[in-house]
């Protein structure tokens, strides 16, 4: 590739990313396709196209582009995470787990790692692997603190495991993080009722109101 072509490639990818950030998805996709035409082995070009497809709910197309990005850059854990995330979005759990494992092996940036452990926690919870779910949710929490979805899931899991004290601590975290949100009070109410502390449970309903 000539220097001029390389400069055009960099420009197409940069402009595609800017268009994507600005919500100009068709423009971003068009620019990504132009970059692919210039260099069919450019992982970033495929990544840009895939990101647009994900935002538009075109998950199968996103998977195809992410796979091409992986093929072009097979030692990049972030590429495998993106592919696994897209696969998880269409319930291709086995494939997603394989790609998450590869991402973890190769290493990935903190933001991607936090998202990956969050997804793994959700999958573990759905399959009834509650201890594994807690481990992955806690890993995610170390990277992405103060996430309400993680806290809600932890509170539910502690309830299922009958770990009332840990559940109530989590509910209190939820109330501190979002005092105007009823979720923390609701979680505390359910846990206290489960523990037979009925009076304390109904106090949570009063606090909520």
Q: Which descriptors would you attach to this protein?
A:
12 helices; 80% helix; elongated
Number of helices: 12
Kindly provide the radius of gyration, computed on alpha-carbon positions and rounded to a whole number of angstroms: 22 Å
Which structural class do the helices and strands define? Answer: mainly alpha
Mean pLDDT: 95
Structure summary, number of beta strands = 0
Largest sheet: none
Return the string of H and E elements.
HHHHHHHHHHHH
Shape assignment: elongated
Head-to-tail CA distance between termini: 66 Å
| Helix share bin | over 70%
Structural description of this entry:
With 209 residues, the protein is mostly helical. It is 80% helix and 0% strand. It is elongated, with a radius of gyration of 22 Å.
Fold topology:
Elements: H1 3-21, H2 25-38, H3 43-55, H4 59-72, H5 77-89, H6 93-106, H7 110-126, H8 130-143, H9 148-160, H10 164-177, H11 183-194, H12 198-208
Helix pairs in contact: 1-2, 1-3, 2-3, 3-4, 4-5, 5-6, 5-7, 6-7, 7-8, 8-9, 9-10, 9-11, 10-11, 11-12
